Amino acid sequence: MKKLVSLVCFLCWALVSLGQNSDKPYVVMVSFDGFRHDYVQKYPVKHIKSFIKKGAAAEVMLPSYPSKTFPNHYTLVTGLYPDHHGLIDNTFYDAGRDTFYSIRQRDKVEDPYYYGGLPIWQLVQQNGMKAASYFWVGSEAPIGGQYPSYYHRFDDKVPHPKRVQAVFDWLNLPEAERPHLITIYFSMVDTQGHEYGPNAPETEAAVMEADSLVGMLMNGLKQIKLPVNVILTADHGMYEMQNRPETFIIADDFLEGLNKQDFLFVNNSTHGNIFLKNKDKADEIFNAIAAKEKHFKIYKKADIPEKLHFNTNARIGDMLLVVEPGYGFYNKESLAKKPEKRKVWGVHGFDPTACPEMGAIFYANGPNIKKGVKIPTFQNIHVYPFIAQLLGISTPPIDGDPKVLQGIIKK
């Protein structure tokens, strides 16, 4: 009888242990917008350095082209290049609706029409788990008819500690309601980087605030007895622009002499798109602009360099103008109304393969992450399958490759 009781107790213990061991891990992905890959070396970020020491860190995570906020945040959660998920820029022309998408337009931001791919929160929810987002590109639109289980409409006035506290609140929910994936976003490093440049004390202060939030997050997670893996990442880096006459490439000058009825020029500062209204004028327009190339290059859509992965989507123009790092497209009217008086400022959007300053961070730490691993430079399309692997789920066909980051996962 005693042997039978002992056997039953052992089986009960084994079942409980098996249940605990089979629990899926949790993932919290934090984005610090504009956090350049070398800020950790430039500034004394003790909490982030401790985070890196106890986990894995990439030399550089390369953003997709163009290195802008919306395309890259959405690439991180779809595993697709912007060319394939359709959110090709912060502002772009959509010929299908003959309208412009802009990150400032609430109705467009919340319209699922603009978003392709399967966001990671939907993938998680399709696999029987819940997901939460405290601000992330795409999370406010019912993509495929579905939102994250928990989400907030973007409001950058929400105090930063309140966002971190929400992570703890979600993880303290009853198991059935608890999200296994949480994304959380902060903009202050990007904001200061734009206004003052990446080397300014104001940008350093923003980086140090990010560091304190990492400290708050990791200290709080110690009190929550769950297997939580944390990813610290960003959408892009930042380039310091110099106020010199040659910095300003005036679009009016290279478009001069062309009939504006034949095309639409969409200026995105670090690049520009030309949509032909009169296809018969294609060679004339291309040759006229190519003759005035200086610190930029024009490509016909079919000839856009393969390295950019940016030449098939209908929202990309018939021609693409790519600006060299350190320069930008402007127009006379806007400069006349608001002259640039700053000596330096920050810009992103350049080709990340030609501009190292566009590189972003990727650090991972947690019970399922190997300690002290250095990751070679990689592209941000590979983050999506990495998260899926941590959560034990498969992905649909994507651009990202699960093999790229699987080496940092503990078996």
SSE arrangement:
Elements: H1 2-21, E1 26-32, H2 39-42, H3 46-53, E2 56-58, E3 61-62, H4 69-76, H5 82-85, E4 91-94, E5 99-102, H6 106-109, H7 120-126, E6 130-134, E7 150-151, H8 160-171, E8 179-186, H9 188-196, H10 201-222, E9 228-233, E10 239-242, E11 248-250, H11 251-254, E12 263-267, E13 271-276, H12 282-290, E14 296-300, E15 319-323, E16 328-330, H13 332-337, E17 344-347, E18 362-365, E19 373-375, E20 378-379, H14 383-390
What does this molecule look like?
This protein is an alpha/beta fold. It folds into two domains: 24-239 and 353-408, Alkaline Phosphatase, subunit A, CATH 3.40.720; 245-341, Gyrase A, domain 2 (2-Layer Sandwich), CATH 3.30.1360. The protein is 30% helix and 21% strand. The protein has 14 helices and 20 strands. It has helices spanning 2-21, 39-42, 46-53, 69-76, 82-85, 106-109, 120-126, 160-171, 188-196, 201-222, 251-254, 282-290, 332-337, 383-390, and strands at 26-32, 56-58, 61-62, 91-94, 99-102, 130-134, 150-151, 179-186, 228-233, 239-242, 248-250, 263-267, 271-276, 296-300, 319-323, 328-330, 344-347, 362-365, 373-375, 378-379. The strands form six sheets. An eight-stranded mixed beta sheet has the order 7-6-8-1-9-18-2-19, sandwiched between helices. Helix 9 (188-196) runs antiparallel to helix 10 (201-222). The longest helix has 22 residues, at 201-222. The protein is globular. Mean pLDDT is 94; it is low at 1-22. Keywords: Signal.
